[in-house]
Design brief:
7 strands; 182 residues; alpha+beta; 6 helices; H-NOX domain
Length: 182
């Protein structure tokens, strides 16, 4: 599979996620709402469940137009607007919580996953494998926002890079691997 293609036609996504797509930022909101409408995602209820493929079709349309860079921004806005339990207070816990949140917001069938495959608190590095049908830039946005929000105060900066030595959704694979540092 590649990005924008659901692993399973039965998968649903919660309306709150679709509303974040529309409302991630003020600029371009009307255009994003029109894109959702064109894909049958109208009058969204934040607690309703919607066909993931329709959502992915909206993401794809957004990626093909002048709004392509918006996918990264939308990804960054999701963790920025999300509420986290008080026990999520370190970068390690935050990275592992992404998979839990993903499963809370998707249902039915093979939805994919976000898996931390390496974590080194001393070297301040991690590896995350994102096995899902979402756009690569969207995932990178989520990851950089999580790292920036939960990195230690003495961290000089952060970086999330697509591991080009691995297959990725950009070339038809089921996942993308990201090298994370802080």
């Amino acid at each position: 599979m590649a990005q924008f293609v659901s692993f399973d036609p039965a998968v649903k996504v919660i309306g709150q996620s679709m509303l974040l797509f529309a409302n991630a930022m003020d600029f371009g909101r009307e255009e994003r709402i029109e894109i959702l409408d064109r894909h049958g995602l109208t009058n969204l209820d934040e607690n309703g469940w919607y066909d993931l493929q329709k959502c992915l079709n909206a993401f794809k349309e957004l990626s093909e137009g002048v709004w392509a860079s918006t996918l990264f921004i939308i990804g960054k806005e999701i963790p920025a607007k999300a509420k986290f339990p008080p026990q999520i207070d370190t970068i390690e816990k935050a990275l592992y919580s992404i998979n839990i949140a993903y499963h809370m917001n998707h249902s039915e069938g093979d939805i994919g996953s976000y898996d931390v495959t390496e974590f080194d608190v001393v070297k301040r590095k991690a590896v995350m494998v994102c096995r899902n049908p979402y756009p690569s830039d969207f995932d990178r946005g989520i990851l950089i926002a999580m790292v920036d929000r939960f990195k230690p105060e003495d961290s000089a900066g952060s970086e999330v890079l697509l591991d080009l030595s691995k297959e990725s959704r950009l070339n038809g694979a089921d996942s993308c691997t990201y090298l994370i540092s802080w």
